[in-house]
Design a protein that fits this description.
Helix content is about 30%, strand content about 15%. By secondary structure, the protein is α/β, with parallel strands linked by helices.
């Protein structure tokens, strides 16, 4: 009898310990608020310096940066919306998650970090831009824009309204401006959460994607102000520095403005502030005028993001969960704001390649720090798993940078990164490349490889090389400068090694 009672007592004690341990783990696991914008490039954040730093509205970005850690060298692995989002979720390069361009969904059943967190007790939710064609997986709740969505009176689709693609006919219209609505819906959902469980909440803004619309409260920002111009704004044609392709010039954006104004019922979008008057302007004056409208619209659009970051931070504070909530704000890639005379992204050049990124976690991270380590979007999923107390899943190619954020960079941390862009166009050829802390080498192989939306018109293969210390604006292609021949030789070898490491398919 005594033995039996002792066994019962031991079992009860073990059960109690296990229950307390589970409760402790639940309490200690941090909440995660992952805020993702579209194209909100680092030049327009202010906290990264640059010619716009004194013009952008950045009150709440500064607040986040002062209370958190900023990554100075975060990069995407394929600078275009859908692929970057897929890499963030899966921790994989495009050739593994199979989202190469803008038309491919994540394969059904493919692993992602939302699924992993959900399997480990997290409440998972997604509100805002999805842009991965098929129904989101791994999110217990979602309410997302169809395709790109629209800025004004946006439509949202939930699980019971779902249709694949950009079809919003079954969705619900919400009156107002999309950035405000997405933040409000995020807060509303968090208020209704199960407070006994940690949450993983993705709040995905459409802003600052083209057509760069903004709420009425920001329409007078920058009125009668001339915004400083980038050094290479008047880089016409192929430029004077040995660039091997034309790129997406600002005049192409102006042509879209004209088309949208003349054919508002048939063009794919509208733009604020039309019509745009160009009569009597020579090529230089025209480009300068295009730049002023474009960059002001972009910053006004970004100002609404800053407003709503503040709204989200205030909610966490008021709800008493700020200290145990990891807040990440990033953008899916960079964007050209007139550099090289360009707009858009896609390229391995710095403005497009670089991802702005700030993280706040009061329990662990000291505020006001900056990290120079090379971090990739395939690392984000590994970091989230690490914070959730989950061993890195085997499907993730990236690495957790939790130690890096605390100033304890592992000895083996990468010193270079691999990049590949697949959506080939003759003006923006498909390419892959390598970037380290000083140099960049890119091979524009110029083939569509039958990817969705890619051109079948091949372009001659070319190499470009930049010394980012001497030429940070990438104005001189130094691939034929003999002083760099040994460096280029070694970087080509390392490029092949990275392709093998990441299982990149061979391209003829």
């Amino acid at each position: 009898m005594m033995t039996r009672l002792l066994c019962v007592a031991v079992m009860a004690l073990l059960f109690s310990c296990k229950e307390n341990e589970q409760k402790s783990e639940s309490v200690e696991k941090p909440n995660i608020l992952f805020v993702l914008s579209d194209d909100h490039t680092s030049q327009a954040w202010g906290i990264y310096g640059g010619i716009l730093k004194d013009y952008v509205k950045q009150d709440n970005l500064k607040r986040l940066a002062n209370e958190g850690v900023v990554l100075n060298n975060a990069f995407c692995t394929n600078s275009i919306c859908s692929p970057s989002r897929a890499s963030i979720l899966t921790g994989q390069y495009s050739h593994l998650n199979q989202v190469y361009t803008l038309s491919e969904p994540l394969p059904q059943g493919h692993p992602n970090i939302a699924k992993t967190l959900q399997d480990h007790g997290y409440q998972t939710a997604l509100i805002g831009k999805w842009h991965l064609v098929k129904q989101p997986e791994g999110f217990a709740y979602f309410n997302v824009l169809p395709g790109q969505g629209r800025y004004w009176d946006p439509i949202f689709k939930s699980r019971d309204q779902w249709k694949d693609g950009s079809d919003g006919s079954s969705g619900t219209v919400y009156k107002g401006f999309s950035t405000d609505i997405i933040a409000d819906l995020t807060i509303e959902h968090l208020k209704q959460r199960d407070t006994t469980k940690p949450f993983f909440m993705m709040c995905n803004f459409k802003a600052t994607h083209e057509p760069f619309e903004y709420p009425d409260r920001h329409k007078d920002l920058y009125r009668d102000i001339d915004i400083p111009e980038p050094e290479s704004l008047l880089d016409f044609g192929f430029g004077n520095g040995g660039r091997t392709f034309l790129g997406q010039k600002l005049e192409n954006l102006e042509a879209r403005w004209q088309e949208a104004y003349l054919h508002p019922d048939t063009f794919w979008t509208g733009y604020p502030g039309l019509p745009f008057e160009r009569e009597g302007l020579d090529s230089t004056a025209l480009r300068k005028k295009i730049y002023q409208k474009f960059v002001k619209d972009f910053m006004r659009c970004g100002a609404a993001i800053d407003d709503n970051i503040g709204k989200l931070l205030d909610y966490l504070q008021t709800a008493g969960i700020a200290d145990n909530t990891i807040v990440i704000y990033t953008a899916d890639q960079g964007y050209f704001l007139g550099e090289h005379g360009f707009f858009d992204k896609r390229l391995i050049y710095e403005e497009s390649l670089r991802m702005p990124f700030v993280i706040r976690y009061p329990k662990e991270l000291k505020g006001g720090k900056r990290i120079d380590d090379i971090i990739l979007n395939i690392d984000f999923a590994a970091l989230l798993a690490d914070y959730a107390g989950i061993e890195k899943p085997g499907y993730i190619q990236g690495e957790s940078f939790r130690d890096n954020l605390m100033g304890q960079t592992p000895d083996h941390w990468r010193q270079s990164m691999y990049y590949q862009y697949w959506l080939h166009h003759p003006d923006r050829p498909a390419h892959y490349g390598i970037r380290n802390h000083r140099y960049k080498l890119a091979y524009f192989y110029g083939k569509g490889l039958h990817k969705h939306g890619a051109s079948n018109e091949d372009t001659p293969p070319t190499w470009e090389f930049y010394d980012l210390e001497k030429d940070p604006k990438e104005l001189h292609n130094a691939v034929n400068d003999t002083v760099y021949s040994t460096i280029i030789h070694h970087m080509k070898a390392e490029l092949r090694t990275l392709q093998q490491q990441y299982q990149v398919p061979h391209i003829e």
